Amino acid sequence: MRTPFASSVRQALPVVLPFAGLMAWLTWYVQDNGFFWDSILLASKYGQWYYQTQFTTLFVPEQLAGYPPLFGMYLAAGWHLFGKTVSVSHFLMLPFLLGIVWQVYLLVRRFLPTPWVFLGMLLIFLDPTLLAQSAQVAPDIVLLFFYLVCLNAMLQHRPMLLAVALAFMAIHTPRSQIMLVAVFLTHLLLLWQDNGKLALQMVGKMLLPYVPAGLLLLLWLWLHYRHFGWVGYAPSSDWSTYAGIVSAQEFARNLFLINWRLIDFGRVGLWLTGLILLWRIRNEFSQDTKELLILLLVPLMTLIAVLVWFTNPIGHRYWLVVYVLLGLLAVHLLDHVLTRRVGLTVYLILAASLVSGHFWVYPERVAKGWDATLAHLPYFDLRRQMITYLDEQQIPWQEVGSDFPNLAAPADTDLTHDFRRFPAKDLTRQTYIFYSNVFNGFNDYELAELRHHWVVIHEVKKGQVYMRIYRKKKALYHHQ
Fold this sequence. Notes:
Blueprint: H1 4-29, H2 39-52, H3 70-82, H4 86-111, H5 114-125, H6 128-134, H7 139-155, H8 159-170, H9 174-195, H10 200-207, H11 210-228, H12 248-263, H13 268-280, H14 287-307, H15 320-337, H16 340-356, H17 379-392, E1 400-401, H18 410-413, E2 432-436, H19 444-453, E3 454-462, E4 465-472, H20 473-479
Parallel strand pairs: 1-2
Antiparallel strand pairs: 2-4, 3-4
Protein name: Glycosyltransferase RgtA/B/C/D-like domain-containing protein
Keywords: Membrane, Transmembrane, Transmembrane helix
Transmembrane segments: 12-30, 89-108, 114-132, 207-225, 260-280, 292-311, 317-335, 342-362
């Protein structure tokens, strides 16, 4: 006799397997790509510290500190078991990627009818930033997994599972700690919607799964403060400027940036479709629509309420939870409001819009979120080619200025034994500049200087990524 669980798994497999296969293939495809963007610090440097110290200390050196230890320790443990390589690092992400597939399936199955379940998942996994982060050793992927577990645990009334997921979020990253608030507020609003009121006994029972996470968070913050004398950013670090409170002008700029991040890379179509369809049914929201709006708007408003006040750069990846729920809401509304034929037509337009996101190219002077689309994939091979060229030409690295994320040693980006580094760019002192359109730190003046007073001596290009070695004209003439 077939059990309900076996029947449920049998029904899920045809939908889940293609996406699980996609994540497995993507992991295999990018396994030689080094650590990229903030993962150089949060994955490689943290992981290597715990790996080298054999877990004998909870705290990283102060110049790296500010983040909880969970992700770095996980990577270090994986390296001890399977070897410290970039490839192993990527495959250590695969359990979380497969977990995201399953958690997304559980959400989609709850809010969409059977004919739309596959299409709903497809639109979610077409999101450029979700795919780009899935191709990296990225702590935000782990955050997304635990957040989705929390949502499903709430909706399925599984307090023990919720407590476990919340506890992991409490010691993962500062942003996952912020998202604890979003989970709590979401839970509170869902409870109020289901019961029409919030009785004290009801709220008390709801709070129980949050107690372990709250205690863990307080313990970590206390231990960190006791050890370093601060929490957040080290006052002496380069990152401390990002903890500053914004001016009125910077506040407006942050609001603009947040809106840009949310609609960027083809997502503008999803927001417009969602708003138009919500307006059409504004007087007759179904229970599912109300639930989805709570799931989407609470993390969105929580993150805005925190991030908008600080000078910290606002990345696309911060909004992964929002992107997943936005895709789900869009498909829910297509099914709920439009006829099947019209809904499928709009769906195809939205899917094409998301695919186009990988090809959105901004002018050279406009910073692009390279860690947020698959457009960044050629970077790693081109960087290896450039390093080979410099070594063949016997050009010392200390004479070659560059910019983030190319300032870290190959020992940190590729887990090699090469500890050489490029110094930060200084066009007044250096003879060579290693430039790529992936580097967002070159200002308008520096770009004009490179065009007019420097010569390209080597260039490589693939896809949307290009890299150049510039040599100062005066230095070139003197050399000749």
